[in-house]
Write the structure tokens for this entry.
Amino acid sequence: MNSVVLNSNDISRAITRIAHEILEKNQGAENLVLVGIRTRGVTLSKRLQEKIKAIENVQVDLGMLDITLYRDDLGSGKNPPQLKATEIAFSIEGKDVILCDDVLFTGRTIRAAFDALMDFGRPASIQLAVLIDRGHRELPIRPDYVGKNIPTSKAMRVKVKLKEDDDGEDQVIVIDQTS
Amino acid sequence: MTETMPLSVKHILGTRDMSREDITTILDAADSFKEISTRQIKKVPTLRGRTVINLFFEPSTRTRTSFEIAGKRLSADVINISGSTSSAVKGENLIDSARNLEAMNPDILVIRHASAGAANLLTQFVDCPVINAGDGSHEHPTQALLDLLTIREHMRKESFEGLKVAIIGDIMHSRVVRSNIFAMKTLGMEVTVVGPPTLMPVEISHLGVKVEYDLEKAIRDVDVIMVLRIQLERQNQYNLASLREYSNLFCLTTETLKNARDDVLIIHPGPVNRGIEIALDVMEGEHSLILNQVTNGVAVRMALLYLLLGGGHEDLN
């Protein structure tokens, strides 16, 4: 059974709110950089970049991170996602890095992203922004900014669809594979 | 999310066994790996705790260093063994050496050997993946892959299909040429080989290539010119009358290049005999991608180590 938990208006409002929260917590956008985790985290970070620009009139640097090479399950038999390049064309040294992903689940992706980011320098802080927090953490990781908390069972799948990624219209759906 | 296509081969023995999909998977992965070598900290933890043994029974600067750097940038432990410092000097044969190395549990063996088939022989005695880094005059698949990556980055066409390439020089002794021909034909490219008749194997046209003996004619209208090294160590007195004669007929100079397209790409697998197969100004000129090839060599080898050790292979140890 599939149910839509966020429609395109909900997603847009959540991103607007997160942009405001980021600016409030960091007292402006001066020291911020955005880093999106491929693929949908990059799209979300681009939308946050636009919102921040609209609110504060500051163009925040944006990087893209592929965490495949930092995964902890290489050689476990699963085929990893297709490798894409990491593009961080600026220094993150001393910056407040807003790390963006679509769904926060076990936390293992974020753990890998921390390692990847640290290879690029020593940021002042890393803050985590996610559209959906679905629980079931396997590591002590928590988000700083959340679009929506969705209680799920482990058998469920959460799918974030964004129009820039050729998913059709913006939507978050929960797919219950048990029923 | 799109998954990495697993390779259809467990070992990298030659491009002859590779499908078009294999080649594309490797080149795409290599593309992504290039970025790591441009970082200040040129290292990712992907192959932490894995061991790569480079077994080089023939001299090499580029290939051995390239494999070593590739392994190290992926955090693998890399051990280099060269023929002159190995037990081969004491008379140990290749199979015994390989079995002993295998007993130390490496995850990948990379081998270069003067005898064709050496890498293939090893696969019958060891369990881990084997990469052929050049076996006699047979194949040198990683060189062909890095050549193709370099061509793909600079070619004016969208795909390899129908791309024209002329390969000049010592066709007979070149393992680079064989690996390139197999891969290029798989990708649908048109290949012409050119060189003196004494260095042209009689049955080369069976591989689906055009044979030419006139340099100026061969390079007309091609997209890529690949210049090969004259392999001085593999010549006998009958193949070449003199280097000067060879150079007069087949050296790629600014003058001969006037017969080629304005946007022709020039590649050379190295090491270069300056002024014999290629003139200095051409080698360092605007068409030359020789140093891009070396950069790409590291990325291609990173991609192969990654793909063979779990980043897209189904049956792992």
Confidence is low (pLDDT under 50) at residues 313-317 of chain B. The domain at 15-137+294-308 of chain B is CATH 3.40.50.1370 (Rossmann fold).
